[in-house]
Design a protein that fits this description.
heterotrimer; A mainly alpha (269); B mainly alpha (279); C alpha/beta (353); A: 269 residues; mainly alpha; 81% helix; B: 279 residues; 74% helix; globular; disordered N terminus
Amino acid sequence: MVVRRNAGRWGLRAFALGYLAMLLLVPLGMIFYRAFEHGFGAAWDAVTTADALHAFYLTVLIAAIAVPVNTIFGVGCALLLVRSNFRGKALLNAVIDLPFAISPVVIGLSLILVYGRFGWFGGWLFDQGIQVIFSVPGMVLATMFVSLPFVAREVVPVLHEIGDEQEQAARTLGANWWQTFRRITLPAIRWGVAYGVVLSTARALGEFGAVAVVSGRITGQTQTATIWISQAFSKFDTTGAYTGSIVLALIAVTTLLAMNIFKRKEAPR
Amino acid sequence: MSVAPGARAEASPRPVAWPRLGGAALGRGLVTAYLSIVVLIPLAALVSKSSSDGLGAFWHDVTTPQAIAALKLTLIASLIVVAINVVAGTAIAWVLVRDRFPGKQLVNSVIDLPFALPTIVAGITLLALYGTNSPVGITVAFTRASVVLALLFVTLPFVVRAVQPVLLELDQEMEEAAASLGAGPLTTFRRIILPNLTPAILAGAALAFARAIGEYGSVVLFTGALPFKTEVASVFIFGQIETGNTNGAAAVSVTLLGIALLVLLVIGRLTRWSLRHGR
Amino acid sequence: MRIRLSKLSSPHRGGEGQDRRRRRALRFGLAALLALALGLGVAACGSSSSDTIAVVGYSTPETAYTKSLIPAFQKTSQGQGTEFSTSFGPSGDQSRAVESGQPADVVHFSIQPDMQRLVDDGIVDSGWDQNPYHGFVQDSVVTFVVRKGNPKGIQTWDDLVKPGVEIVTPNPFSSGSARWNLMAAYGAEIQEGKSPAEAEAFLKTLLEHTVVQPASGGDALTTFTSGKGDVLLSYENEAIAAQKAGENVDYVIPDDTIQIQTPIATTKDASSQAQDFVKFLYTPKAQQLWADNGYRPVVKSVLDKNKSKFPTPPGLFTIDDVGGWDQVTTKFFDETNGIVTKDEQDLGVSTSG
């Protein structure tokens, strides 16, 4: 039986890693190869132009706004979905995933329809001097739109899994909902939240289509890293494009590592 | 503080117990406001735009042969991709949580990369790898298989990352008990572990499905976007916008959304069923 | 299934854990607020000052503008001290963006319908094409991009449909500017004396030989350079740019081909400096800069000077010679009855069956 177990484990490992290798690692290798094809110096120069640096700064800034907001509301959504009952819960459950199902260009279109200068609210906003579309706020909105589901979706299964007995118990002992949340629920869902944050960050960094439409693509002002990369491609600057992609990927990996460290410091088991 | 052993963690459908009424109303209000500003109102604008020429035009836009071909391809490919992801994703999550091998942390870190990579880079890389000049001899570009391959790439993290947190919280005592009673690893997995993972797998599958049907950047280049052959809905929609038929684009988008909503509702129902009947 | 509940929380942690968590939450909240403030700040200073000339153009001339034309203008007496903001992207997207309110002083698109959209909305004056060059500041021609050395010997339109030749051309339903290629093919047949029916049949044959129709011109070029196909239908300036970037391609200018005219105009609210800039683009100096970047000058003297680089095809015609964009769009690309639409449909049905 032990032999069977080991064979099973090796088989599973081989399958999982083989799948990952073919699907992920080989393409990754390709990207690295293309980025450094002309040497490290060329790659460095390509991504440290003023426009490139601003683009990365803008991407990180947008993610820094969109992800925390999404996290807070994601956890709120998850709690609503799992711990309370109201009509339309099934619909809310389904609606949360919808942002993905819309083509990114259409997301941009719908945001313009509402917040653009001739959109539903856009006119009023414009008169107040607030420019949403073709400016950073619109890009933040688009990013929030596309990364909305992650935290909620990661947290919901964990909430189901842990059940609410401890919360009930804390309640009977007189804890209010904030205390219950902070001391019982939150520590329990922290892995879900962590992975949700990592996924939304990665998504926010890599978003292109929707942000491109609402950004106006103004060089040096409303270009995110992904927009900069696509422009690099169209100018045949493949080194810049691939190196830029690696930088984005590195930022995403850093988020994951930061989350891991955060988890470890939070509660030694 | 601990609860008597043997007690079961229940999914709680009990109303009002958590949180208190005041907090609930405020929470619901805030969440609704947020969802509205970011998602619901723009979606409403989209629906409004799609039907601005009347329902007849809407129907016409959605039933052109090219639109139907695109929708069909998208749905079938997405369902295939979800099926593959459910199996592969669970396996990968399992290996990442329960297994030990050198480089595991590294592998764990790269799982999310399909997201962080701009989708156009993904498309170009896939083209370079599996296109005409493929260094590995696999040339699936511009075929229907290429749609599945590109979608597999971008939906990789979903099931994995949905199952991981649940696996991490999972208590191994039941498995050990089952093993000591003589159950083989497969039986243990099937009857003890899997029921607990099912909600997470379904959540990941839902996300993967939604993403797959909306994906554009990585698919558009790699598949060649041939109308009636390898053109997915998002590329078709893009074409409609580019050639000035914004209402048509909105109409097909809304239809795609409607189908997605249906599938997601079904998955939601499956999840509830599995929670009620799983142990 | 039971969960080991001791894992869930540590209520015995007491004050210390609570404090740490509270501080972390506070830091988190502050960081978010800071980010929000920064964001709004960036948004505020992101708006251009009234002296900045906002150029919104289609994607290909980006290098020409940012590396050559704008710096050259800034060296002139009129252009001294002017600031520019630039935005480049797919022509249709850019046109729609300006329509939705994107600030623009100078707009430059790749097809006339994208300009007409703004005229209809009142953003561009209807007299934009009332200069000697009808509003076109440079042009290009449809060419055959082939592998280096032209191994399949493709020189004419008929060569494209020889057995065994694989064509790449962008999807005319994903990209308005992709329609130039097909209209070049149609018009060339007419020029050669074929009847409209024969020319339409040729279009169908052409599409039968097309192995892939990427969603945009840029995608088509990438697809071609990645190894797919024997010949790519593309614009001359794209081919020149690709060669300059080191791609292993050559290009052939067929005898009969269409002139790709890209419209440029200032918006109604544009400053006089913006108008000066556009006028500057027609000066011999700027026209030579266009030529250096691979575009055909419209000023005859400059075109003549660059004749060796830009030979005039004997059978050059314009979109007006085949009916103008309005007629062409309805006749060929109408989504139900267009000739090309029906061709694509037939091909799709026969190959997917």
